[in-house]
Amino acid sequence: MKLRNLKRRAFIKWCAAAGVALGAAPGLLRAGRGAPLSKPIPATGERLPVIGMGTSRTFDVGDDSDARAALLPVLQAFFDKGGAVIDSSPMYGSAEAVVGDLLQRIHNAGDLFAATKVWTYGRQAGVEQMLRSQRRMGVKRFDLMQIHNLRDWQVHLETLQEWKRQGRVRYIGITTSHGRAHQELENILDSEPFDFVQLSYNIADREAERSLLPLAAERGIAVLVNRPFQRGDLFRAVKGKPLPEWAAQFDCASWAQFFLKFVVSHPAVTCTIPATSKLHHMQDNMGAGFGPLPDAALRERMSAWYASV
Ligand SMILES: NC(=O)c1ccc[n+]([C@@H]2O[C@H](COP(=O)([O-])OP(=O)(O)OC[C@H]3O[C@@H](n4cnc5c(N)ncnc54)[C@H](OP(=O)(O)O)[C@@H]3O)[C@@H](O)[C@H]2O)c1
C-alpha cells in the first residue's frame, strides 16, 4: 500500500479517536450550545478552544502607556469569550512583556494557555531566553514552548525534553511559517517527539494540507495555525465582496469568521492564533469559536467562493 494511503487511513482513525468529524456530508460539526468550540491535544486529550490569539506586531507597543491601555479591552474580550491560547515570541519585540503587564489587570485569565518560543542559538542562550520570557510574560512555567522557525532545534529540543521531565514546561513544539522549510519540518516531525507544530495555513494557502497536516494527525501532534488571515491580505482580497448566503448555515457572520472557520474545521488543526490590536476585530474573531463548523463539502465550497470573488 502506498505511504499516502497509509497516512490517510491513520488520519481517518485518528479523527475518529479524537472526536472530530472528517467532513462527510451532511454533517456540520457542532459544539455544545453556548460553549466555545474546543479540540483535544492528541498527546493528552486536554481540550483547547479553537480560537487563540497571536501577538506579533499587534502587542509590540513598548512602554507606550496609551497603546497598552488600548490593548487591555482587546485582551479582556479574548478571555470574556472563552479564549485561552496566547502565542508570543522573543522575536516580537516587547509583545511578551506587554501581554505580561496586561494579564495582571485581567480578572478572568485563569484559563490562560501560555505559549512562546525559543529563538536563539546555543543551549545556555536558549535557557536564558526562556527564563527571561517567563519573567516578561509573568508565568511560572509555559504551557507550550516552541522552537521558533527550527532555529538550532536539536540543541533546544534536548533542553526542552529535560525541562518537560522536570515539569518546567508542559508541551514542546516547533514552528515555521509561510511554507518555509516544510520538507525539513516533515523529517523532524517524523522522527522526534513533538507535542505541537505551528505552521501557516489559510483559505488562500492550503499547502500544509498536502502532507504536513496529515503527518501531524498521523503522529498525534497538535497543530497551531499562524497567519490565518495571511497577515491581513485575505481581507484586502475580499474588500467590498459579499459573503455567500449559505455561510449562515454555520453561523458565519463576517469574512473573518469565514476565514477562521475554514482553518479550524480542518480535522488536523487544533487551534488558530489570529492577531489583532482592535476590540471589534477581537470580538469578531472570537465569534468564529462558536456554532457549527463546515464539513468537507462546505469547505470546498468556501474555497471556491473565495477564489471566485
Ligand atoms: N514562525 C512563526 O512562529 C510565526 C510566523 C508568523 C506568525 N506567527 C504567530 O501567528 C500569529 C498570527 O499571524 P500574523 O499576525 O502574522 O497574521 P494574521 O493573524 O493572519 O493577520 C493579522 C492581521 O489581520 C488583521 N485582522 C485581525 N482580525 C481582523 C478582523 N476581524 N477583521 C479585519 N482585519 C483583521 C490585523 O489587523 P488589526 O490589528 O487592524 O485587526 C492584522 O493586520 C502571529 O501574531 C504570531 O503569534 C508565528
Keywords:
309 residues; alpha/beta; 8-stranded parallel sheet; disordered N terminus; binds NADP nicotinamide-adenine-dinucleotide phosphate
Total count of strands: 10
> Shape from CA axes?
globular
Low-confidence stretches: 1-6, 12-28
Instruction: Report the bound ligands by name, code or SMILES.
Output: NADP nicotinamide-adenine-dinucleotide phosphate
- Level of helix content? 40-55%
Strand content: 5-15%
How many individual helices? 11
The topology string of helices and strands comes to HEEEHEHEHEHEHEHEHHEHH
Q: What is the average per-residue confidence, as pLDDT, rounded to a whole number?
A: 91
Strand order of the largest sheet: 3-4-5-6-7-8-9-10
Straight-line N-to-C gap:
40 Å
Which structural class fits the helix and strand makeup?
alpha/beta
What is the radius of gyration computed over CA atoms, rounded to a whole number of angstroms? 19 Å
Most strands sheet: 8 strands, parallel
